[in-house]
TrEMBL record, chain A:
Record-given protein name: Chromosome transmission fidelity protein
Species, as recorded: Ananas comosus
GO terms (BP aspect): mitotic sister chromatid cohesion
InterPro entries: Ctf8
Superkingdom field: Eukaryota
GO cellular component: Ctf18 RFC-like complex
Gene assigned in the entry: LOC109720705
UniProtKB/TrEMBL annotation, chain B:
Species name: Ananas comosus (Pineapple)
SUPFAM superfamilies hit by this protein: P-loop containing nucleoside triphosphate hydrolases
Identification of the protein by name: Chromosome transmission fidelity protein 18 homolog isoform X1
GO biological process: DNA replication
GO cellular component terms, A-Z: nucleus
Region (Disordered) residue spans: 1-127
Spans through the membrane: none
PANTHER family membership: P-LOOP CONTAINING NUCLEOSIDE TRIPHOSPHATE HYDROLASES SUPERFAMILY PROTEIN (PTHR46765:SF1)
Species classification: Eukaryota, Viridiplantae, Streptophyta, Embryophyta, Tracheophyta
Assembly, per entry: Heterotetramer of subunits RFC2, RFC3, RFC4 and RFC5 that can form a complex with RFC1.
Length: 131, 988
């Protein structure tokens, strides 16, 4: 069976994606439940402080992760399944599925180090009070 | 050659033969002291016999050297040989009545077998002349006599060596036929000079075999000369070799089975074992006595009885002195007859179970030196027709050389087809450890190989076996097909451990002193050495019945023309065979005092001196001082020495302490020469506590046990200490715990003022006590636990609470104050109910503490279950400056993982009641039990720092709750053991 992969590379720029790989789990607070939509996971920052290495920081909850960008050995495609709706022969290809390339993944950002706990500001205040 | 089950007639004949002999056997018993009577007796019976003498030229020895036919000379010589031979045979008979039970019958039967075999061998000529069945049918005394003559004749010369008992000489005729001529002592002693008469005894092999051999050679030479010259006159008597130069030990070594000094029972069993090889080695089958044969035996026993009586009468004429005893004897024999036959039956039945060769392939004789183990092995093997091959300690005993040697002996038939089979005697197999081991290994390997092929052997029919035997031997080269006798001094030598399981073991017991003394006396008489019985017995006792050293000593003294002195036995004894005794013997010697009945004070002193020397050499030879002293230490208190003021005991313990410190010093500084001071210490103790009675010695196990226990308890303590919270364990070493704290701690744990009632019935004070106790137990990680129902006695000890399973302290620290099994400590035990309450409380407390620490780690997930709590926390933040409020917070937090309900309850309380929360705390608590702890917590946690921490926690959680998603880091795995220890714990 032939699967058509549709790509609009020639027309414009193919969007580049990236994988964020974490050693760990991102969990929702138990109070939130299953409603995950619209929640902000965290903040991913790219800081090109040093000349050669570009370091990424990812802040989730009260953890700050630091990672680096790595090239994948084999690039991946992100595809989107589409019902084929070609006007030419609708009878024949009605059941066929068309895949559209949404993005190409060539890099991943790997956070493999132990997360740094963010010291919250109120605590600092407390200390001040204590002193 | 095939052997059938003997017919009834044959057996009758046998029996008549055998039963004739007991009376004749009498001579053996009265042989040593009254020689004159014996000789006179012989003279009466055989007037043609010249007085028996030993040396001299036996010109007419019945050795057919160059005669064309074998049977011819036999017949011609017969008149002369037979009576003598008969006499000689009498000597060789076992002391018929001295043995007891069925085993007595055995050698006789065997000899009968030999005779019969011999007869059948010669069947060509002699069979016709002496048709057996006819003779046996007659069954009367004269006939029996004839048969004895027959047997004797046929045993003298035979084509097969094993049929001849004792020494034999191979003779080859001109026709190429080879026969073996028996050398009888009386034959040698026919003609001789009177001068040598003093040395001669008429019956026994009066001279050592080597002498006889030498003389035989000389005789053969003389014979040859004689025949070539045709004259008898110029024959010169070869000079008697200097017998005196020979060791008495060899000279008077027992040459026949009956002369053995060792225990009769052992002798017979060894012989029986050797005989079991017959079927394997000689190819003949073991006979089974069938029932009809047995009945025939019984039927004829009565007839033989009468015949016996006739004989007795006949003897009575000759030597009237022993009529009565003989009559007694014969009646006894008659009574025993049936049991004999039964015994025989059993014996043979047992043997016939063994298919081919005995079950145990190896015989292991052990016992102290000088008792005649080697002699027994040699004599028995010779008696059964083997040639003895001895491997001694002095031979090369490396594993490879020994293997080839054993294989040679055990598997190869001798190159000459008619030579005797060999029997291997490995002397002093325990001697050198490394070398001996090789030997043992080889033997074990062969035995194992034998076992493997035993299975297929079982099915082969016996007839086929005879044919197959040689081929089989060829196929399976490692099979053990010849008897192997091993001799050792110490049965429990480590090298022999495996052999012991495989081999048939016979322990040699010491013969009685009187027996030794009799023999010694006899030898002394023969040698013209004047001694007294007392001196001899003293000698025998000193050497512990080591007849070899006795004889050596005597000969030495004789040579020096000295007289054996009772008092100087120890100085006169030249040397004993070097040996080290087992450690048990050493202990026994230390605890055992020699009975000093006779002798005055001077003698006593001397004996004491001697004892000391013996003991010293014994202990220092053994060498393992540590073990020796251990054994003494553990055993000496069990002795029943007279010591009302405990002085001896104290002194002994003192000495033990000294030797212990000496030992320590020696091991520390490695100055082994100082060990030489150990034996005197032991001897001193021995002087203090040794008893006449036989000590009951046990192997010292206590040291080992204590060591194991120490290790176990140390482990226990270590594990326990690791479980303690660091704030406690860092202040307390294991040692200080055991030495100082255990007892007070146990006292605290079992405080008597606790009542096993429901908690809410306790007064405030009691609640406090309980809380404190639980706190202590948790802090020291002690709890109660259900004991498994293992040791019954323990349950019995706690008999009051036997219905429920008793509770014990979990690290059994109460064991540390119990030094002995039955020791009851002073600490009062809590009642079972109280223990259960405590167990419950401690468990609860522990869970609480765990959860507290978790919540302090901010790792609890359950604490933020409802969003409502955030609000309450928010309120708390507002009031966090209030020092009174925070403890309640804390208590809430402690509870929070416990149950959500509790928490809500708590928070609700906080939100509702601002300042006056004391009342709700006591009233609204869901669980009454826990109230105590919270009270306590409230009291304790008044400090500001705690407040700060708690507050910080609050704010942190608030902060955290503002974020919807959290990251949870997955840790990798390591092998290291991680245990969270907080600084806070250390700072407490």
């Amino acid at each position: 069976m032939q699967i058509k992969v549709k790509c609009n590379c020639g027309e414009g720029q193919c969007p580049e994606w990236a994988i964020v790989e974490l050693q760990g789990i991102v969990e929702s607070q138990p109070s939130i439940g299953n409603q995950l939509q619209g929640l902000e996971i965290g903040r991913l920052c790219c800081s090109s402080s040093s000349s050669s290495q570009v370091s990424y920081t990812f802040t989730v909850g009260y953890h700050e992760l630091s990672g680096s960008k790595m090239a994948l050995k084999k690039p991946l495609l992100v595809l989107k399944k589409k019902k084929a709706a070609d006007g030419d022969n609708s009878v024949l290809n009605s059941s066929e599925v068309e895949l559209q390339v949404i993005g190409v993944i060539r890099h991943k950002i790997l956070f493999k180090n132990r997360p740094k706990a963010l010291i919250s500001k109120p605590q600092v205040k407390d200390k001040k009070i204590a002193q | 050659m095939e052997m059938d089950v003997p017919g009834a007639e044959e057996l009758e004949w046998l029996e008549s033969n055998a039963l004739l002999l007991p009376e004749e056997g009498e001579y053996d018993e009265e042989e040593y002291p009254p020689e004159e009577g014996l000789r006179a007796d012989r003279g009466d019976r055989r007037p043609d016999l010249s007085p028996p003498n030993v040396s001299g030229a036996p010109r007419d020895r019945p050795i057919p050297c160059s005669l064309p036919d074998i049977s011819r000379p036999l017949i011609t010589h017969q008149p002369r040989i037979d009576p003598e031979n008969h006499a000689g045979r009498k000597r060789l008979r076992p002391d018929a009545d001295s043995g007891a039970g069925c085993s007595t019958a055995l050698p006789r039967e065997e000899e009968g077998g030999n005779k019969r075999r011999a007869m059948e061998e010669e069947s060509d000529e002699d069979w016709l002349r002496h048709p057996l069945p006819k003779d046996a049918a007659a069954g009367a005394a004269p006939e029996a006599d004839v048969h004895v003559l027959d047997a004797a004749e046929e045993k003298t010369i035979s084509r097969f060596a094993w049929e001849i008992e004792g020494e034999c000489l191979p003779v080859t005729g001109p026709g190429g036929e080879r026969v073996y001529a028996k050398m009888t002592s009386s034959a040698i002693g026919v003609v001789g000079s009177k001068s040598a008469a003093a040395k001669s005894t008429s019956g026994l092999l009066s001279e050592p075999i080597s002498v006889l051999n030498k003389r035989l050679e000389e005789d053969a030479l003389a014979k040859a000369l004689q025949e070539s010259f045709g004259s008898q006159d110029n024959q010169t008597c070869p000079a008697v070799p200097a017998v005196n130069e020979q060791l008495w030990v060899e000279k008077y070594a027992p040459s026949s089975f009956t002369e053995l000094l060792s225990d009769e029972q052992t002798n017979r069993e060894v012989l029986l074992w050797l005989k079991q090889w017959d079927s394997c080695v000689f190819g003949s089958q073991i006979r089974t006595t069938t029932d009809d044969v047995l009945s025939a035996l019984r039927r004829h026993s009565s007839a033989i009885h009468q015949q016996k009586f006739a004989n007795n009468k006949f003897f009575a004429k000759n030597n009237g002195a022993s009529v009565k005893s003989q009559n007694l004897n014969s009646s006894k024999v008659g009574g025993r007859e049936t049991s004999f036959s039964k015994g025989i039956n059993n014996l043979w039945a047992k043997k016939s179970m063994v298919s081919n060769s005995p079950e145990q392939k190896v015989l292991l004789l052990c016992g102290p030196p000088g008792l005649g183990k080697t002699t027994l092995a040699h004599v028995a093997a010779k008696h059964c027709g083997y040639r003895v091959v001895e491997i001694n300690a002095s031979d090369d005993r490396s594993a490879s050389s020994i293997e080839s040697k054993i294989l040679d002996v055990v598997q190869m038939n001798s190159v000459m087809p008619d030579s005797k089979p060999k029997c291997l005697v490995i002397d002093e197999i325990d001697g050198a450890l490394g070398d001996g081991k090789g030997t043992v290994d080889v033997i074990l390997k062969m035995v194992a190989a034998e076992k493997n092929c035993n299975s297929d052997k079982g099915n082969v029919t016996q007839g086929a076996q005879n044919l197959k035997a040689p081929s089989k031997r060829g196929h399976k080269p490692t099979k053990l097909s010849r008897p192997v006798i091993c001799i050792c001094n110490d049965l429990y030598a480590p090298a022999l451990r495996q052999l012991r399981q495989v081999a048939k073991v016979y322990m040699f017991a010491q013969p009685t002193v009187t027996r030794i003394v009799n023999r010694l006396k006899y030898i002394c008489n023969r040698e013209g050495f004047k001694t007294s019985t007392i001196a001899l017995s003293a000698l025998a006792e000193y050497t512990e019945c080591d007849i070899r050293s006795c004889l050596n000593t005597l000969q030495f003294l004789h040579k020096k023309k000295e007289v054996l002195n009772i008092l100087e036995v120890d100085s006169q004894v030249i040397g004993q065979k070097d040996m080290s005794r087992s450690i048990l013997d050493v202990w026994k010697e230390v605890f055992h005092k020699k009975n000093m009945k006779r002798g005055g004070k001077a003698l006593k002193g001397r004996i004491g001196q001697k004892d000391m020397n013996i003991l010293h050499s014994l202990i220092s030879n053994r060498g393992e001082y540590e073990l020796t002293l251990d054994g003494i230490h553990e055993n000496f208190l069990r002795l029943s020495y007279h010591d009302p003021l405990m002085r001896k005991t104290v002194k002994c313990l003192d000495i033990l302490g000294t030797s212990e410190s000496l030992l320590q010093y020696v091991f520390r500084t490695q100055q082994m020469s100082l060990q030489a001071y150990q034996p005197p210490l032991v001897i001193t103790m021995s002087h203090l506590i040794s008893q006449v009675g036989k000590p009951n010695i046990e192997w010292p196990k206590n040291l080992q046990r204590c060591r194991a226990m120490l290790v176990e308890k140390k482990d226990l303590l270590k594990a326990w200490q690791n479980n303690l919270s660091p704030s406690i364990s860092r202040h307390q070493s294991i040692q200080s715990f055991v030495e100082d704290i255990v007892s007070p701690l146990l006292h605290i744990l079992s405080s008597p003022n606790l009542r096993p009632v429901a908690l809410h019935l306790l007064s405030e004070r009691e609640k406090d006590d309980l809380a404190q106790l639980v706190d202590t137990m948790v802090a020291y990680s002690i709890t109660y636990k259900n004991s498994k129902p293992e040791p019954l006695e323990k349950i019995l000890r706690h008999g009051t609470s036997a219905d429920a399973s008793p509770l014990f302290l979990d690290p059994p620290i109460d064991d540390f104050v119990k030094f002995k099994q039955g020791y009851q400590s002073e600490h009062s035990e809590l009642s079972l109910a109280m223990k259960q309450v405590l167990l419950h409380e401690v468990e609860k407390h522990r869970i609480l503490q765990d959860s507290v620490s978790k919540s302090l780690n901010l790792a609890t997930e359950g604490s933020n279950k409802n969003e409502a709590s955030t609000k309450t926390y928010a309120t708390e933040v507002n009031v966090m400056n209030n020092p009174m409020q925070t403890p309640v917070d804390k208590s809430c937090k402690q509870k929070s993982p416990f149950s959500q309900r509790q928490k809500t309850d708590c928070t609700a309380r906080i939100s509702s009641s601002g300042m006056n929360f004391k009342a709700p705390v006591t009233s609204n608590k869901p669980s009454k039990h826990s109230s105590n702890f919270f009270d306590r917590f409230r009291k304790e946690s008044g400090m500001d720092s705690k407040n700060q921490i708690a507050n910080f926690q609050k704010t942190a959680t608030i902060e955290r709750d503002s974020r919807p998603l959290l990251f949870k880091y997955n840790e990798g795995f390591t092998n290291a053991v991680k245990r969270p220890v907080k600084i806070r714990d250390l700072l407490l």
